[in-house]
Design a protein that fits this description.
The structure is a homodimer of 328-residue chains.
Chain A lengths: L10 H12 L4 E4 L4 E4 L8 E8 L10 E2 L4 E7 L5 H11 L5 E6 L2 H13 L4 E6 L18 H14 L4 H13 L1 E7 L19 E4 L10 E4 L3 H16 L6 E8 L5 H17 L3 E8 L9 E8 L2 H8 L2 E3 L3 E2 L2
Parallel strand pairs in A: 3-5, 3-6, 6-7, 11-12
Antiparallel strand pairs in A: 1-2, 2-5, 4-14, 8-9, 8-13, 9-10, 11-13, 14-15
Helix pairs in contact in A: 2-3, 4-5, 4-8, 6-7
Chain lengths: 328, 328
C-alpha cells in the first residue's frame, strides 16, 4: 500500500486536524465524539447535519459552512458514524428550529442516524439520499446514496439559510432526491488503509460499471472502451430513470472518485453535455470535480438533477464551505 | 492505459470544450490558436497571462478570472504552448496597461514566452517561477517552476486587479517567487496519453523524492517511509532554503499531483503544520488540494511562502476563478 500515512489507526484523526486547521475560518473540529461544525452559527434556522464513513472527502466536512451543512459526522474510513456523534453535533448546532439529517442510503448510516433521531429531544427529520440508479428500484435495501448527495446538501442548505422551516426543508430535500439520478464507472479499485490492498482485482482491459463509493465491484464488469462509449452507457441509465422532457432545465454533475484528473473529468463533462444536448435538455448548471470520492479509486460518475426555478435559485444562492464556494 | 479518453489526439480539445462550458460564467475559450480568457474584461489594468503544457489542471486555465489571470495558454499535454497562442491571448486581454507573463521555468516555456514577448507590440514583462528546491540553485537550466506558481498568480493577480502598474506587478511577482520554495514526492508515475504507459517504473516499496510535474523521476529514489518521515524530508529542504526567522508569517500549501485523495493531503498538511509550528513559524494561511497536477500521478508537494503584510492582503483579496474562489 502506497499512501501518505503513518498509521491506519490514526489517519482519520490526523487528517481531520489538518482539515480543521486549513479551514479554521469556516469550521471547528470537535473530538470525542468527532464532528465538524460551522464556526459561525445563527439561531432560529433549521440545522442541517450529514455524515457517513470517511474516505469520500470533501464529502461531508468539506460542505460545512454558510449556505450548506451546519455539521458533519465523519465515521472511520467507509464506516458509519455512531449515534453519539450525531447527537453531539445536533446539540452543538441546533438553533431552535429543528434538525434535518441528510443520510446516504447505507444500512449502517440509516440505522445509526435513525437511532440518533429517536434519542434527540426536539423536532427533527431526515432526508434519505438514494440516487444511484445502477441498482434496481426494488433492490432489497434500496438504492445507494452517492454523488447526488452534494446537490441535496447545497439546495437544502440554501433553503435553511433562507429561513425555510423544518417541514419545508424536508419536503424540498425529498423533491431534490426524486429529481436526481447518478451512475458511476470505476477504472481501478481503491485501497482501504486498514486492509492494505485493493478491495477488488481488475484487469488492465476491464472496467466496473455501476459502482458505489466504497470500493465495491459494480453491477457488471465490462471491457475498457472509449470515454464516449462509457458516457453513453451510464448516461443512458440516468436518462431512462428520469425521462426528462425536451427543454427540461438540468444540473449536470461529473464527479471524480479520487484519482481521476480534471483533464479527464472535463472531457467526460463535454461528452455528457453532448449526450443530453442531443436529447433536447437545457443544461443550465455544471459541477465538475472530485466531490464524492472513494479514496484513491480511478473513475467517475454522472449525476443529473432536474431543476425547477426554486431549485435553481437555491443552487445559485451564496455558499461558503471548504469545497464549494460562490457568491460570498 | 486506463483513462476516460477517446483519442489522445483530441483529448485536450474536448477537455477544454468541457471546461469552458462548465465555467461559462467566468471564461471564454478561443481556438486556433487555443487560449482561455476572462469573459468580463476591464480596460486600464495590467493583464496577466500564463500558460504551459496541459496535464497540470486546474493550472492554468482554472485560475483565469477576477483577481487572478486574464488568460491562459494551454499547450498539448506536457508540451509548451506556442508563441502564437500567447500573442493571440495578449491581443485579446491587453487593456492598455501592459501584459505580464507568468512563466514556469522550463526551457520550452521560457523560449516560447520570450519569443512572444519580443513579437508583442506594447509594454510587457515576465515573471519566471522557479520554486522547486529539489534542484540546486546553480542547476544549468535553473530550478523548475512548480506548485508555487499558483501563489504567484494569486498575489500578483490581486495586485493587477487593484491597479498596480506593470513595473509594480513584475517586481511583486519576483518578490513572491523569491519568498517561495516547493518540493514534492511521487508515489507513482503518471501516464501521458500519447505514450500510453507510465513514464517511469517504480517498485511497490519505492518513492521518488524531489520530482517535477512532468512525470520525470525525482532527484533520488527512496524507500517508502511514513508520511511523517516524507514530510520531514521535503520540509527540511524548504526550511534550509528559506531559512525563515521565528514568528515569520507564512502561507503553507499542500498540493496533490492528481491521484492523491484529500484525506491524505490533509494529513500531510497537519504534519507539515506541526513541523513548522515547532520551528516557530506563524502559519497564517493554508491551501490544500490538487492545484498543480501531473496527470494521474500519486504524490504531493509542500510549498512555503514567506508573507509580508502586502502579500497577505493580496492573498486575501477577492478571487473568482474555476478553481480558486473567495470573497466574491
Amino acid at each position: 500500500m502506497k499512501k501518505f500515512i503513518d498509521n491506519p489507526a490514526t489517519l482519520l484523526e490526523t487528517s481531520l486536524q489538518g482539515f480543521a486547521k486549513a479551514h479554521a475560518d469556516i469550521v471547528e473540529l470537535h473530538t470525542e465524539p468527532n464532528f465538524v461544525c460551522r464556526k459561525q452559527r445563527k439561531k432560529g434556522r433549521v440545522a442541517l447535519i450529514s455524515g457517513g464513513g470517511s474516505g469520500h472527502e470533501p464529502l461531508h466536512a468539506g460542505f460545512v459552512g454558510y449556505g450548506m451543512l451546519d455539521a458533519a459526522c465523519p465515521g472511520q474510513i467507509f464506516t458509519s458514524p455512531t449515534p453519539d456523534q450525531m447527537l453531539a453535533a445536533a446539540e452543538a448546532v441546533d438553533g431552535g428550529a429543528g434538525v434535518l439529517f441528510i443520510v446516504k442510503n447505507y444500512a449502517g448510516d440509516v440505522m445509526n442516524f435513525e437511532m440518533a433521531a429517536e434519542m434527540l429531544v426536539g423536532p427533527n427529520a431526515s432526508v434519505l439520499v438514494n440516487d444511484d440508479v445502477s441498482l434496481p428500484k426494488d433492490h432489497p435495501i434500496g438504492r445507494r446514496g452517492v454523488a447526488g448527495t452534494v446537490i441535496v446538501e447545497k439546495i437544502v442548505g440554501a433553503a435553511a439559510e433562507q429561513g425555510y422551516d423544518l417541514a419545508a426543508c424536508k419536503s424540498l430535500g425529498d423533491r431534490v432526491v426524486g429529481a436526481t439520478a447518478s451512475m458511476g464507472i470505476a477504472l481501478s479499485s481503491c485501497t482501504v488503509p486498514a486492509l492494505g490492498r485493493p478491495t477488488f482485482e481488475i484487469a488492465e482491459d476491464e472496467i466496473e460499471i455501476g459502482v458505489g463509493i466504497h470500493g465495491e465491484r459494480g453491477r457488471e464488469t465490462g471491457k475498457l472502451v472509449t470515454a464516449s462509449e462509457m458516457v453513453e452507457q451510464i448516461a443512458g441509465h440516468i436518462q431512462e430513470e428520469l425521462n426528462p422532457g425536451a427543454g427540461q432545465a438540468v444540473l449536470l454533475h461529473v464527479n471524480g472518485f479520487g484519482a481521476t484528473p480534471l483533464v479527464e473529468l472535463h472531457l467526460v463533462y463535454e461528452l455528457a453535455w453532448q449526450y443530453w444536448q442531443k436529447r433536447g435538455l437545457n443544461i443550465q448548471r455544471a459541477l465538475v470535480g472530485s466531490f464524492t470520492t472513494s479514496l484513491d479509486m480511478a473513475g467517475c460518475s454522472l449525476t443529473l438533477t432536474l431543476l425547477d426555478e426554486e431549485m435553481l435559485r437555491l443552487w445559485d444562492a451564496p455558499v461558503n464551505t471548504a469545497a464549494l464556494r460562490w457568491g460570498c
